[in-house]
Input
Amino acid sequence: MQSALATLLAALALTAAAAVSVGDAPARALGGSSAPANRVAPPVGDGDGSIGLNQIGTFVSPVHVNSPPGYPKLVFVVEQPGVVRTVLKGKVLGRPFLDIRDLTICGSAPDDCGEQGLLSIAFPPDYRESRRFYVYFTDPNGDNLVAEFKRSRSDPTTAIRSSLRPVLPIAHPVNTNHNGGQLAFRGQELFISTGDGGSGGDPPNNAQNVFSLLGKLLRINPSKTKGGRPYGVPRSNPFVDQAGRDEIFSYGLRNPFRFSFQERNQNPDRVLIADVGQRRFEELDYVELPSANGANFGWDAFEGFAPYDCGAPTCSNTGTADPGGTTPPIFTYGHGSFATPGGPSGCSITGGFYVRDRSLTSLYRRYVWADFCEGELRSLIPTLTGALDEGPLGVPVEGVTTFGETPDGRVYVASLDGSVYRLVAR
Output
């Protein structure tokens, strides 16, 4: 179990070391854009580290935590080999909600999943009535698939395995890493994050290629079918009736393993994308959702704020030319010699959530996140022009693989060792 998750997230970055703050990141050579200042402002929460952890169970390679609307006592934990476990009223049930280990590439070898396997689960807002839900997994051929299932009409803790409906296949040739893997709904629209296809430096230039689904944030409507496809595409997607894939919403991403939306009543909605870096910088992108429609986040012309440099004369890809008009991150931190003392140390960013749980006084209206290699939780205040008051919470969690949030705002975090915790005030 540990070796699988170690490969899953530690391999997302090529090196691991300390960090660089926003203010010290190299200027981004793009139309005069540069790193926003690492400003200091009074935090929204008290920032005093008064956060505790309540363990809800121990699992096999937990990589995602989610809860369906309409069922406040249910929490689902995704196990990477292909099982979704149910936590009901704080108790882990013996029978899984869904078991598709035979459909995933690593179901028969759970300690050898790497960055593949069952990676996330999502529930539409009409889940209580429709019973439909969606999962993202790697099939035995190494390709990724977004698939629909239905739960039992009479038992909300049981999915109907035979209800499987393939929705969106995502070809992932050659490499096993950089699969992305997040699903999240905004209304009936399903957002999907995909990695650039792996290797180092994106040799095929997938992230900048608008005819490839890799290295993207996609948006579809899986409850509709149109034009022979098992899903619909919003007409407002940027490449509808244009050159490029209709499903693409944003592009220029390396491996957005986890992304999330800001609180439900934010107008307009905002999206936070934690994009795993290559050898120098991890980054957090934060934009209003309308601005993300058609946004190019810069990889592999840029890594963080800096022009991408593979760092060796024999690299297969030294980065593409600046395409112009890209959207820079609001926060970066670095590896090794690119680190700034006192900042977060890094190898692979694990994205979290903008906290809506008012009981978490010190985190309320802050973004909670972690780095896989650092071993503790951190938070910041996201603004459209930069990150404020970034720092540790004083809460150690080794090997953070994912965060989770319930519809009522409860926040969860999963660890490499198999533990899943709820964040609580102490």
